Request: fold
Amino acid sequence: MKLADLFKNGKTVFSFEVFPPKRNNPIETIYRTLDELQELKPDFISVTYGASGSLADNSTCEIASAIKHKYGLESAAHLTCVNSTREEVREVLRRLNENGVENILALRGDLVPDVPPKEEFKHASELISFIKASPYDFGISGACYPEGHLDSKNQVEDIINLKKKVDAGAEHLMSQLFFDNRVFYDFLEKARIAGIDVPIEAGIMPVVNKKQIERMVSLCGASLPAKFTKMMSRYEDKPDAMRDAGIAYAVDQIVDLVSQGVDGIHLYTMNNPYVAKRISESVRTLF
Ligand code: FAD
Reply:
């Protein structure tokens, strides 16, 4: 099933994101995680793609295929393009199709130190057009940034570029994480005014330790409301309290977002089934 179809009956979609095991960890570790995530019955699970776009790493395809065929849940494979040639992307599309993966989150990706750029794709919209022109019938999603992408001069420019992604064929958008729901509502309003009419899922990242937040904020530049920073500084040296406060914060965000009628919640699980379970159990009846 294409992801965009999940939104057609007006139900709020609840989805998860996982990443393939890091180098040196066997692929089986993700299957132990998925065994537990499956029980939470998300509407779909998406699988991230290594930034370097190496053809040798087939794990995203393998895991997205297993989610669909072994676990019986809909899946989406992330795919980046900036570090790949057209030929390499064509090969990944062939493999995804051959393995029965129906949905792709089409991304530009970021340049990786020590990997020379291939310069055949510059933006996600070009990848989307390329997928559309392929012989396969994939459902295509794109990424969006409630606070604007770090490369953009301003949010207006970013939303104009986001519209190009949708015009190229993205049928559904998943947002970058954010910690202040007002930022998301403001973005949503601007996106709708700009004529972006596809379902937009809100990306929620439960922050359960201090290291995680330092890394995430340096990578994506999400702003931190006072309510959040006070929580962090109060509990940063108490790991259990930090975890519980982070879970409660994410639940609070989700309750508000669902009450306001957002299209869906995309939970960045960080491959942590315990956290995903506690959040899912707290919000399950809202969906
Ligand atoms: P684009 O849509 O190409 O946008 C990037 C920048 O270019 C923006 O500033 C935009 O305004 C501008 N732009 C876009 N189109 C045009 C145009 N036509 N003309 C001029 N400017 C334009 N990274 C990974 O490596 N692997 C993953 O699995 C992964 N998953 C992600 C999942 C989600 C939900 C999100 C939000 C991000 C994910 N990323 C992932 C990170 C992503 O690759 C980076 O944020 C990257 O810098 C931008 O990707 P994009 O697809 O949004 O790029």
